[in-house]
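User: Can you help me understand a structure? I only have the sequence.
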Amino acid sequence: MNSQLKYLKTNLTLLVFCALAVLVPMTAFFSTRAVVPLTILAVLVGTFDQIRRREWRFPIDAMTAILLGAVVLWALISAAWALDSFLAFRGAGKILGNVTIGILLLGLALKLRDEFQPKLLGYALTVGMVIALSALTIDPLFNQPFSALVYGGPISVNAIGLYWLNASTAILIVLVWPLIVFLKGEKKLFWGLVILAWLTWVTHLIGFNTGLVVIGISAVLFIPLLLLRARAFAILSVLGAAAIFLSPFVLPRVFDPVVYAPMEAVPKPLVHRMYIWKFASGRLLEKPFVGWGMNAARVIPGGKERATDKFRASYGEFLPLHPHNAGLQIWLELGIPGTLAFAALLAILLQRARALGLAGVAAPFLLLQFLSAFLFSEVSFGIWQSWWQAVLWINIALAVLLCRPPPAPERAQPG
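Assistant: Let's start by predicting it. Here is the structure, written out as tokens:
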């Protein structure tokens, strides 16, 4: 650790990642959008450091670069038939910016991976996680002292809990898995599981049901992923692609709001989400090949009309800003070409994760990081939201840095 502290003084890139590891969980509590400027600042400082030392390198392979470039180009071309050309151009520009920042961040992580062991960074993430969990514990138990700083006073809590803390908690749920992998490597797996249990309790405390479902699915799938070993990466690639391509056909049938609306046990916001999925699926199938154009979800015909029924009266707009499902949003806006590129990128990501060479329980924990991010993208957040894109890139970078294969056993020396 002392050697790494000395190294920290001369390596701005390591300092950048340690700062991100501490600040992102903490900052996200007050504003998820603040993750974006933090990431941009980190990339600028780290890239300057790498260029200054003439050590920067392009971090991704040709196929990944082509796919990412194709998504940006297709989003730009879609402005030709988009409902709002300005929104389409702006959306394409955001994707280009997010991809550029992500690639640069990944480049810094890959260079740093070759130079140091992750101990200092892992403990920095532990500190950030513990501080954020402490804030998330104190806020609901003691009349929201931290939320009051942001919003000017306590917020009235309704049936869906402390909803404004959901996104912050989701970030921690995705970040906890690489942290567990690191702590397992440090022979401190017990403390990693303690942090996971604490996070689960906090998720329940604030009433974040989606987060509990994601953690629950992760717990159920851990043993199967462990038993499948390397095959789990390929299986998740197939299942991820299937989820994307089947979503407009399966979601409206499995989660039909007409069926669930009369059930009092089903929360009203969840029924509203089902109406959103059903509406987006219907609009998607009207233009399945090229889509409605980048950012069309914001101005889709009929999207601002309100969903109503005789059971819960009015729910809200059929499509407020996005469909709360990455597969639906990409297909709705970018059609089959965008959907194919997204599915291919997921497969490449899992292939690269497999190449990290993790063994034992570390590999399924890494897959749970991917699964958590994928599930939140499929049921909660807009895939083009800059803060969520930043979180995804940060998680990829942290996985590269913290998820290391076990050291090769030393050969016995002849005696």
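Now, to help you interpret it: The chain has a mean pLDDT of 89. The two ends are 32 Å apart (CA to CA). Let me know which part you'd like to focus on.
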